Amino acid sequence: MRPEDVPRLFQELAREFADVTGMSVAATGSLARGDHRTGPTGDIVSNLDLIHVVADGADVPEVRAVVGRTMRRISDTFRIETTSVIAMLPAFRLAGHAHYRISMRPEWFCDGLGLGSEAFDRSGRDEDDPGAALAWMMQPVPYYLAKATILDPTTNLAKARRAAMRLADRFDLEDMREGLDDLPGSLRTLIAEHDITPLDSTARYLATPTHPAIAQLVRDAVFVEGMGLSSADSMVIMLPSAPN
User: Fold this and answer.
1) CB-side exposure of 97: number of CA atoms within 13 Å?
2) How far is 112 from 23, CA to CA, in rounded Å?
3) Sign of CA dihedral 135, 138, 143, 145
4) What is the average per-residue pLDDT within 174-184?
5) Given phi > 0 = left and psi -120 to 50 = alpha, else beta, which region is 172?
6) More confident call, 34 vs 227
7) How far apart are CA 33 and CA 3, in angstroms?
């Protein structure tokens, strides 16, 4: 997909989900932020990331089926890999500082839950609870560090460093900027110096960063924290079908 196709993609998503009920759907990630990656040919190489918010866990199987059918059409039409995550409404409301919440494009493709535009606001102000904001914003750093233990270390370590820089810039953390070569050490120092209670995903990684299953342990913890579901129940991934 070419960068100039992004507006048409969002228009098509709004059309596809126009009549959907029982969930609210928005884009998140790099395409939503407008900082997606392109390859040597100029084609977009970033995934399309969507968040589907549901009110009741009993709705998850049906939502997965609807999402699968819809995203198959989108993935094949635009020749783009799509990653959809389903989030339970209580977890979505509590995760106001989660990376996927901060990255959301501030409009719904459908708003079957009636969440309104205020749902794009973070839960609580940073100055009111800076420890909670710091805990949530450091979450992507151990997530990508853990992921790098099993998959594409170069790319995932770079993502961990970018997440650390976003954290440093947001809270003016000079020690974090200077500690990119030892991110686990930098996270431990940040937690100690700011008296932060880390999220379970961060604590799990820092306790055993070389555990053989650390990538899956951290991934599952991240999904439960942010989505209220395991990664297996939450994620729906679609690759473009092979050309005929």
Assistant:
1) 20
2) 5
3) negative
4) 94
5) left
6) 227
7) 13
Residue 12 structure tokens: 């098509």
- Tokens 């880390």 — which residue? 198
C-alpha count within 13 angstroms, C-beta hemisphere, residue 118: 6
Measuring CA to CA, which residue among 168, 163, 204, 209 is closest to residue 185?
209
User: Which residue is associated with the tokens 């900027």?
Assistant: 177
For residue 80, what are its two tokens?
């783009």
Number of H helices, E strands in the chain: 13, 5
Distance separating alpha carbons of residues 102 and 155, to the nearest angstrom: 22
Nearest to 147 by CA among 88, 190, 209: 209
- On whether the CB atoms of residues 35 and 92 are closer than 8 A, the answer is no
The pair of structure tokens assigned to 205 is: 């990684």
pLDDT tens track for 132-154: 889 999 999 999 999 999 999 99
Exposure of 87 in the CB half-sphere (CA atoms within 13 A): 27
pLDDT band at 42 (very low <50, low <70, confident <90, very high): confident
Going by C-alpha positions, the residue among 149, 144, 153 that lies closest to residue 213 is: 149
